[in-house]
Amino acid sequence: MTVGTAVPVDRTAVVRDIFDHLDQNKDGYLDGEEVLLLVRNLKGTKANHRKVARLMRKMDTNGDGKVDPEEFGSMILDMSNKYEDAQFLNKMDILKRGRRQVHIDFLFRLFDTDGDGEMSEKEFLNCVKLGLKSSKKRPDSPNPIMDKFALLDKDGSNALDLKEFSTYMDEIFKIMDERKFAEAVSKLRSRAIGLWRAKAASIQNAAAAKDVATHTNDDALSEDDDN
């Protein structure tokens, strides 16, 4: 039997895709404003023009005041040599979409417990309540939370897609810098996983108890039959 091997990631193509995404005016170069977008994706609220100028100088090796695809690719590929493919793709996802959006995507998948690509009212309620507990706030009653859900559900589908959920997360976390935001996400993740593990254990214990009761009854029936 032939064992399949993973196809190596075409890193040059991945980096070029990021360049094209950042090149918003499609002139084939990155200017200061477009590099600012890159820095914001990495640093969030800590982005400033000083960091942009420093990065521009580092990438702009021919000194023409702009960054071409080769200059961008050379720096990014050189910086990412130490990463395995999976880590590389994760880092590139952050470069393209921003660290915060990557965290939001993770939370969306975490609370989309049935994996249907949408967040139901119940899943949204679980997310908000756990989030309030993790921030040591008293959880709201379901009604205000569901009112918020209805406002976010722009298409009236009775479920939130990733874009609608992202709008909510941007609203409640907009004052946080990237470090505090990451800490909040980590805390929420830990609470969710802890809760689900406890529920899983409870279900397993209930199933085990039912199994014991069933076998006990079976044994009793067997004894009756013997008599």
What does this structure look like?
- The chain has 227 residues and is mainly alpha-helical.
- The protein has ten helices and two strands, in the order ααααααβααβαα.
- The protein has helices at 11-22, 32-43, 49-59, 69-79, 85-97, 99-111, 121-134, 142-152, 162-173, 178-226; strands at residues 119-120, 159-160.
- α1 (11-22) packs parallel to α5 (85-97), α6 packs across α9 (162-173) and α6 runs parallel beside α10 (178-226).
- The longest helix has 49 residues, at 178-226.
- It is elongated, with a radius of gyration of 25 Å.
- The termini are far apart.
Quick structural overview:
By secondary structure, the protein is an all-alpha fold.
Structural class: mainly alpha
Shape type: elongated
Give Rg in angstroms: 25 Å
Write down the overall mean pLDDT: 80
Helix-strand topology string: HHHHHHEHHEHH
Q: How many DSSP helices?
A: 10
State the end-to-end distance.
57 Å
Tell me the strand order in the biggest sheet. 1-2
Helix content: 55-70%
Write down how many β-strands occur, each being a DSSP E stretch of 2 or more residues. Answer: 2
What fraction of residues sit in β-strands?
Answer: under 5%
Ranges where pLDDT stays below 50 over 5 or more residues in a row are 212-227
Main sheet makeup: 2 strands, antiparallel
